[in-house]
């Protein structure tokens, strides 16, 4: 998801500010769907929606959700963030590699540490970089196929206990995310996460009960204490890290600041040099 | 302030460590509020990896591990034992949840777990209701501190049963008691302290405020104001108006 306004409900203002440009940058290399995002709450949780509205900007209230998403027929209350977008991360990564290749960049797959490389190094290995101050925040997600459900944009369900987002992909595939737990537990998805994510999805649309579970995922999001990504300069090594839950949203801004630092010595607000 | 298992706390505020937008905000909230105790959940947070635990330890406050999310005495006892190893403290905030929707304590499981853990050398802080009979049984089982709820966890409703809480306070005048859960506003914290409770414990009201740091400070000020007011022996409400300035002899024009 490229949803800086939604993330602004809890994230640092830097995420909202830098994230605005992400969709434009990604559109240069991959398919970006510009259909906004929808934030919904069940009637019992209307206070959650009011709070979300107070803490975000650029939204409009949606009196009739089914006018935007005909498949959402429940008694939802909703906000619409018209200028947000989404992409398929795996497709985007493949397109990015192809775009680099077209510009003459060679991509090599190998196991290597920065010490073994000559010249300037950009290290974007996440947790594996072992940077001081970096912690892992566990996240879990599911990928489902539900051919009879059609959504044209990401939908966030606000809930006091089990918030959820559903991102539509091609061929009736949906990504359901995501838990966020302050733990560096690296095991597979927990039964509790499966129950909570599916329970929330079922509340959004009961037809998700019949969906085919294609994939589960659990991993650590690398994050610094303020959950804002950084370019950490250590001699000739530039660490691009701490993207937390904002990988695709913040990668363009972080990359641009790394380039500005490498080429002109400009220290942007995300650059932390000694 | 009454002591908690021999520990005198510098301030009557205990803060939870979950749900903050970022650890940097959590740290700032603790600094601003000068909270004296941090509660931490073993099952969901800090269970693996040192990073989050290091952040909590870096706060420089007493750590009170909890058994949040446990639905049976057995589960809570196991979690408490793991917490003792991880956090190196005998303190345990004992939560045995009896109802999934209201998250209210299971009094029977709570009593059984309190008994087992107290016998095992734990210093138990049982999260309980305002029920006076249960409170007495928990004390009999070995608890030396009680943590009655204000209202269901995360509801922000304040003190749901002031009469019950006032009665509980009066029934056990020597027992340190913390109002735990359900506080939404600083005025709720002041209310609890004015009733004579020794501390308040909260999480959601601070962590999910638009500005958690400012809200933490507001709660700290309110808790201290309430404690000061209680110590100052407040007046009792009365039905007869009593002018603060005598009216007798005033010029009648």
TrEMBL record, chain B:
Gene Ontology cellular-component terms listed: cytoplasm
Catalytic activity from the UniProt record: [ThiS sulfur-carrier protein]-C-terminal-Gly-aminoethanethioate + 2-iminoacetate + 1-deoxy-D-xylulose 5-phosphate = [ThiS sulfur-carrier protein]-C-terminal Gly-Gly + 2-[(2R,5Z)-2-carboxy-4-methylthiazol-5(2H)-ylidene]ethyl phosphate + 2 H2O + H(+)
Superkingdom of origin organism: Bacteria
Cited Pfam families: ThiG
Active-site annotation: 93 (schiff-base intermediate with dxp)
Subcellular location: Cytoplasm
Single GO term (MF): thiazole synthase activity
Keywords linked to the UniProt accession: Cytoplasm, Schiff base, Thiamine biosynthesis, Transferase
Keyword Cytoplasm belongs to the record: yes
Domain Thiazole synthase ThiG: 5-246
One GO biological process term: thiamine diphosphate biosynthetic process
Binding-site residues for 1-deoxy-D-xylulose 5-phosphate, renumbered to this chain: 154, 181-182, 203-204
Gene3D superfamilies linked: Aldolase class I
Metabolic or biological pathway, per its Swiss-Prot or TrEMBL entry: Cofactor biosynthesis; thiamine diphosphate biosynthesis
Residues in coiled coil: none
EC nos: 2.8.1.10
Assembly description: Homotetramer. Forms heterodimers with either ThiH or ThiS.
Family as reported in the entry's similarity comment: Belongs to the ThiG family.
Described purpose of this protein according to its UniProt entry: Catalyzes the rearrangement of 1-deoxy-D-xylulose 5-phosphate (DXP) to produce the thiazole phosphate moiety of thiamine. Sulfur is provided by the thiocarboxylate moiety of the carrier protein ThiS. In vitro, sulfur can be provided by H(2)S.
PANTHER family (alphabetical): THIAZOLE SYNTHASE
Name used for this protein in its record: Thiazole synthase
């Amino acid at each position: 998801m490229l949803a800086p306004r939604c993330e602004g409900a809890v994230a640092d203002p830097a995420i909202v500010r830098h994230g605005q440009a992400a969709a434009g940058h990604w559109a240069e290399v991959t398919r970006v769907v510009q259909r906004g995002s929808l934030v919904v709450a069940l009637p019992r949780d209307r206070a959650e929606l009011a709070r979300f509205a107070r803490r975000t900007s650029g939204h409009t209230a949606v009196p009739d959700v089914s006018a935007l998403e005909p498949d959402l027929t429940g008694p939802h209350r909703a906000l619409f963030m018209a200028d947000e977008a989404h992409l398929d991360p795996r497709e985007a990564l493949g397109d990015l590699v192809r775009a680099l290749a077209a510009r003459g960049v060679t991509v090599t797959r190998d196991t290597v540490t920065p010490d073994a490389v000559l010249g300037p190094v950009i290290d974007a290995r996440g947790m594996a970089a072992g940077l001081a101050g970096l912690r892992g925040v566990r996240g879990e997600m599911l990928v489902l196929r539900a051919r009879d459900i059609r959504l044209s944009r990401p939908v966030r369900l606000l809930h006091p206990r089990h918030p959820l987002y559903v991102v539509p992909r091609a061929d009736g595939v949906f990504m359901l995310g995501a838990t966020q737990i302050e733990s560096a537990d690296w095991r597979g998805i927990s039964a509790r996460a499966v129950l909570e994510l599916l329970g929330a999805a079922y509340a959004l649309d009961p037809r998700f009960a019949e969906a085919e579970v294609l994939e589960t995922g659990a991993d650590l999001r690398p994050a610094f204490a303020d959950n804002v990504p950084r370019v950490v300069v250590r001699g000739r090594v530039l660490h691009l890290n701490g993207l937390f839950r904002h990988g695709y949203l913040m990668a363009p801004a972080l990359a641009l600041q790394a380039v500005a630092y490498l080429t002109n010595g400009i220290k942007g607000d995300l650059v932390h040099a000694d | 302030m009454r002591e908690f298992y021999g520990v005198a706390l510098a301030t009557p505020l205990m803060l939870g460590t979950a749900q903050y937008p970022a650890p940097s905000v959590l740290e700032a909230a603790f600094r601003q509020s000068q909270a004296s105790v941090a509660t931490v959940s073993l099952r969901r947070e800090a269970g693996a990896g040192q990073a989050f635990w290091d952040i909590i330890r870096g706060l420089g406050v007493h750590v009170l591990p909890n058994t949040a999310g446990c639905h049976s005495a057995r589960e809570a006892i196991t979690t408490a034992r793991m917490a003792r190893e991880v956090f190196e403290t005998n303190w345990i905030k004992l939560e045995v949840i009896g109802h999934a929707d209201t998250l209210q304590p299971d009094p029977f499981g709570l009593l059984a777990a309190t008994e087992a853990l107290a016998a095992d050398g734990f210093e138990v802080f049982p999260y309980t209701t305002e029920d006076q009979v249960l409170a007495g049984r928990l004390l009999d089982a070995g608890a030396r501190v009680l943590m009655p709820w204000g209202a269901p966890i995360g509801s922000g409703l304040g003190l749901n049963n002031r009469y019950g809480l006032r009665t509980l306070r009066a029934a056990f005048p020597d027992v340190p008691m913390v109002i735990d859960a359900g506080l939404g506003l600083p005025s709720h914290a002041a209310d609890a302290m004015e009733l004579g409770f020794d501390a308040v414990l909260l999480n959601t009201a601070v962590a999910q405020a638009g500005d958690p740091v400012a809200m933490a400070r507001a709660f700290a000020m309110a808790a201290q104001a309430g404690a000061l007011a209680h110590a100052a022996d407040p007046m009792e409400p009365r039905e007869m108006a009593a002018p603060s300035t005598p009216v007798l002899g005033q010029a009648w024009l």
